[in-house]
Amino acid sequence: MRMPRDLHPVAWWAWAVGIAVAASCTTNPFLLGLLLAAVSLVVLTCRSDQPWARSFRLYVWIGVIVVAVRILFRVLLGGDTPGHVLFTLPTIDLPDVAAGISLLGPFTREELLAALYEGMRLAAIIIAVGAANALANPKRLMKSLPPALYEIGTAMTVAINVVPQLADSARRIRAAQELRGGPTGRFRRIRGARRLLVPILEDSFDRSLALAAGMDARGYGRVGELTAQQRRRTGALMIGGLLGVCVGVYAFLDATAPRLLALPMLAGGMALALVGFVSAGRRVQRTRYRPDRWRVPEVVVALCGIGAGAVVWALGRADVDTAHPGVLVVPALTVPAVLGVLLAVVPVWAAPPPPTAQDPGAAPAPSPEPAREVAA
Fold it and tell me: Does the keyword section mention Membrane (predicted)?
């Protein structure tokens, strides 16, 4: 029997990034639906009972809103796509400044399907990010980042923790108002949403002050002793590496660019950036209490997400009709595509059960390795 423990947060983010890549490489609604079902199953099975785990529903609603807005914009802006007209709205011709653009007009079934496919793709990417946010502990994610990304990681952790904190604040404040005899029921809650706004903002402000005080007490913002020459060298390495990576990626994507600017420039830029990261990490000195370790479940979870993304990416190059079906035919599915997408479900069995508040023995055991890296 596996002991409950938290999976490494980077493993969950690697899995989610792979799912997002897979979603961005296809507009097949059946594949996108399978991806969404797989992500939802993993979240419902592997999430803990911590406050950030309740934020997944918000990302699902954001995805639904994205699909609806995408369809509404297609109705508003209209189009010249011929096909089966579903309904016709009065056409509004814009002035000569926006020649060729008209609002409303006939709306066809083909335009509806095109908007639905594009909206589902963007919604799947958003929900994949929400899954990582619901599965990974943001505080443990921050301490897992390398020292060079210490300040950026702190800002990103605070940013991605906003939605879970707002969800937790709304839940607690709504429960308190119901205990005081506030409105109950779905429609009454919607009408009473204005009563939630000020308490939620006040609670968020109090949490921000508490977070700032805690970070200040723990020495966040301190830097090591580096000379001006070392700072200039580190900045030059980082900028040079960034330029090399940008040129290499552009040349890799542009078939007309010289091949000398593709992989060699990309590899050189990454090498310079790596040296710059090592040099930048010397100015941050921090300790890690109970450092997270990569084990077999972490590797399996990360590889499943990356594998799903790689399979769908390869499908987009080898079988364009399946990855990007038109709106005039029924989207097709192939066995390799389905099996590649189903790799995203493997964490249901590979990931250890999450610890819960009712399981006092689920606390992570101290790592036998001493803390090697310390940031204050």
Answer: yes
Give the model confidence (pLDDT) of 6-37 as tens digits: 788 889 999 999 999 999 889 999 999 999 99
Which tokens in the block code for residue 91?
Answer: 């056409």
Residue 252 and residue 336 share a domain: no
How many other β-carbons are positioned within 10 Å of the β-carbon of residue 332?
12
CA distances, 141 to each of 76, 289, 304, 368 (Å): 42, 13, 20, 20
- 270 and 232 housed in the same domain: yes
pTM for this predicted structure = 0.71
156 class by beta-carbon count within 10 Å (0-12 exposed, 13-18 middle, 19+ buried): middle
DSSP string, 95-156: -GGGTT-EES-EEEHHHHHHHHHHHHHHHHHHHHHHHHHHHS-HHHHHHHS-GGGHHHHHHH
Which of 131, 187, 184 is closest to 160 using CA atoms? 131
Residue 215 CA to residue 250 CA, distance in Å, equals 40
Is the same domain home to 278 and 335?
Answer: no
CA distances from 231 to 106, 147, 222, 376 (A): 61, 15, 15, 19
Confirm if 75 and 105 have CB atoms less than 8 A apart. no
pLDDT in tens, 90-109: 777 777 666 667 777 778 88
Assign 375 to helix, strand or coil: strand
Are residues 31 and 150 located together in one domain of the fold? yes
Task: Indicate if 145 and 263 belong to the same structural domain.
Answer: no
Q: What is the DSSP string of 280-335?
A: HHTT--B--SS-----HHHHHHHHHHHHHHHHHHHHHHH-HHHHS--SSSPPP--H
Q: Distance between CA atoms of 306 and 308, rounded to whole angstroms?
A: 5
Say how many C-beta atoms besides its own lie within 10 A of residue 362's C-beta. 17
